Amino acid sequence: MTARVTVLGAGFAGMELSTILSETLADEVQVTLIDQSDAFVFGYSKLDVMFGRTTLDAVRLPYRHFAKPGVRLLRETVQAIDPASRRVTTDAGSHDCDYLVVALGADYDIAATPGLADVNEFYSVAGANRLREILPSFSKGRALIGVCGAPYKCPPAPSECALMLHDLLSTRGVREQCDITFVLPLPSPVPPSPETSKALLAAFAERGITFMPNRRVAAVDAARRIASLDDGSELPYELFLGVPKHRAPAVVEASGMTEGGWVTVNPRTLETPFPNVFAVGDIANTGTPKAGVFAEGEAKAAAAAIISRIRAGGEGQGEGRLYDGKGTCYIEFGGGRIGRVDVDFFSGPKPTGTYHEPDVALREDKLRFESSRIARWFGR
């Protein structure tokens, strides 16, 4: 009997898991991959769009090019999830399955921060694309990069934004007329790696960027151009660049799968308390960062568990490969240089990070990371 697998979300996790199932069980599995969008965009490409390095059209990868044996990709919007019966209802009908994988990522909770809807955020594709047109007109005053809550996707991205903004303003010859302030509700830019955080703090100091740790933007008054922080203080600004608070998609919250805001899973197999229901990527509470490379690792572990169970005839609790909690993040330091941090969350008593100094050559590594995924998922 052909096993039915429904995967919700075609991001890093959803595409990698579907690809593995296709490669391994193409004739034994029917995978239904569902996403409401028509194209995929690498998360870090948003900064490239925002700072004019590329265009949105250039970084969009249409899902029509994702074609795998045994996989059908449907453009539908998920309206309800019943994890007990493994039934998914969309705007086009319903889907029943033997294995359900929720990979819908994290949504941006704009309403959680009063006034944020009236200013600029750079974490959504649309927000980054809007800022592409706005940034060239900023030439004087304070630019405030404000994070409105943690956890958030791609922990180094706000730091990258500050350094890339410095480069942009310097290139335009207006850096001396501008201040850059970065507010973060964490003690350091990359807490699992003190070395990486130290390097970023040194880069901020060298470039005159003010870093304010352990504080969160709690509200924004666009009319007064004032950001209120959670300690009661206020910061004026001329340009606000926000990172919205993140939350689980409403449809996942309504399913009863969330606890403490995210889906509870076995961090090594990614299975939820519901039998044969998995959650991978940003939606899952694994203790690792919300970033594409970690979502990809989680997808491999969930796929291994599903493959093991299918091969066992659906019996038992086969696991196969466990999620190792490891991942590599590339960090833009400006001036064409890229740093790298290799993070390991599960091997020791606490997370560790190995830092690699910024280098122009590491850009080739980052490009290979991207091109290899494009080739694997889209055949390009």
Radius of gyration: 21 Å
Give the averaged pLDDT, no decimals: 96
**How many β strands by DSSP?**
26
Question: Treating each run of at least 4 consecutive H or I residues as one helix, how many helices?
Answer: 9
Largest sheet: 5 strands, parallel
**How much helical structure, as a percent, in the residues?**
25-40%
Report how far apart the termini are.
33 Å
How is the largest sheet built, in terms of strand order? Answer: 5-2-1-9-22
Stretches where pLDDT is under 50 for at least 5 consecutive residues are none
What is the SS-derived class? alpha/beta
Descriptors for this entry?
single chain, 5-stranded parallel beta sheet, 9 helices, globular
Can you give a write-up of this model?
This protein has 380 residues and is of the alpha/beta class. It is built from nine helices and 26 strands. The chain has helices at residues 12-25, 45-50, 56-59, 125-134, 157-171, 194-207, 250-254, 292-311, 362-378, and strands at 3-8, 29-35, 39-40, 61-62, 71-75, 78-82, 87-90, 93-96, 99-102, 107-108, 120-121, 141-147, 178-183, 209-212, 217-221, 226-229, 234-236, 239-243, 246-247, 258-259, 262-264, 277-279, 284-285, 326-334, 337-344, 352-359. Strands 5-2-1-9-22 form a five-stranded parallel sheet, with helices on one face. Strands 11-18-12-13-14 form a five-stranded parallel sheet. Strands 6-7-8 form a three-stranded antiparallel sheet. A hairpin with a 2-residue loop joins strand 20 and strand 21 (262-264). Helix 1 packs parallel to helix 8. The longest helix is centred in the last third of the chain and has 20 residues, at 292-311. The mean pLDDT is 96.
